[in-house]
Amino acid sequence: MFPLTNAAVILSLTALLATGCVTQTLASATTRPAVVVELFTSEGCSSCPPADELLADLSKPGAIDGIQIVPLSMHVDYWNDLGWADPFSSPQFSDRQKWYARLLNSDEVYTPQMIVNGTDQFVGSDHRKADDAITRAAIGSTGDINIQQTRDPQNKDTVVCNISIDGLRLSAPANVMLAVTEDNLSTEVPRGENTGRTLRHTGVVRSLIQIGACGPNNSAQFAVAASIHLLATWKMDDLHFVVFVQSPQSGAIYAAATRSVDHNMRSR
């Protein structure tokens, strides 16, 4: 299994697992099926910019009618010794990609690679395969994920995410994951395969952790509160919280939701 924590980001985690009914609605439930699109990419790879652009296009409202696409741009670190160290890269994301390779019985780890809802993988710049995979994945979307944000009164840079999940249909336990992503990032690359290019990124994963697990009953309900430290170098206006439920056995993602970080959470 890939590493799940980023110590620079997560200050604390308080699980409030519910086996009965969740009686408080924390936010508006997702009204469109949400599909998670992960892109394993690197600024050191000359084949990756078209895939980065495709992820940005897919992330635009209405890119595929009736589907909410949740972008997760995972910058791997295994290109970093080949002329340019990607500032957004992490060994956590390289490990996550290797985890997928084992689950998908693949002998190959490469960039750019796109994985849709944890089960469908292909070259990350293939627009047709992306459209087809996202459309198929939306059919199997289940569950409602709700996210509410409050400021930690003891730490001005910490946001408490209260997350509840209802209506999952599970046959086995699944992990509940929380990511922080940032849009509108760019780099002028001075070395490596992309020398002289300005690369732009959407949905860059700044943090990814597991915050709990859901049971296998047919009406699984879950609630959790996670405290998240927002770093000063992140642009508040471009940050999002992403929550998704994923099988540790198959990689399949059963439900997902995303919400922009509330501007009221900004430090004062």
What name does CATH use for the topology?
Immunoglobulin-like
Shape: globular
- The pLDDT mean sits at 87
CATH class: Mainly Beta
Q: Rg to the nearest angstrom?
A: 18 Å
Please identify the structural class as seen in this structure: mainly beta
Describe the overall structure.
The chain has 268 residues and is mainly beta. The protein has one domain: Sandwich (Immunoglobulin-like), CATH 2.60.40.10. It is 13% helix and 38% strand. The chain is built from three helices and 14 strands. The chain has helices spanning 49-58, 91-103, 127-139, and strands spanning 10-15, 34-41, 68-75, 113-116, 120-123, 144-151, 158-168, 174-182, 185-188, 198-201, 204-214, 220-229, 239-246, 253-260. The strands form four sheets. The protein has a four-stranded antiparallel sheet, with no helix packed on it. β4 (113-116) and β5 form a beta hairpin. The longest helix has 13 residues, at 91-103. It starts with 9 loop residues before the first strand and ends in an 8-residue tail after the last strand. Residues 1-30 have low confidence and may be disordered.
Q: Keywords for this structure?
A:
3 helices, 13% helix, disordered N terminus, 14 strands, mainly beta, globular, 38% strand, Immunoglobulin-like, 4-stranded antiparallel β-sheet, 268 residues
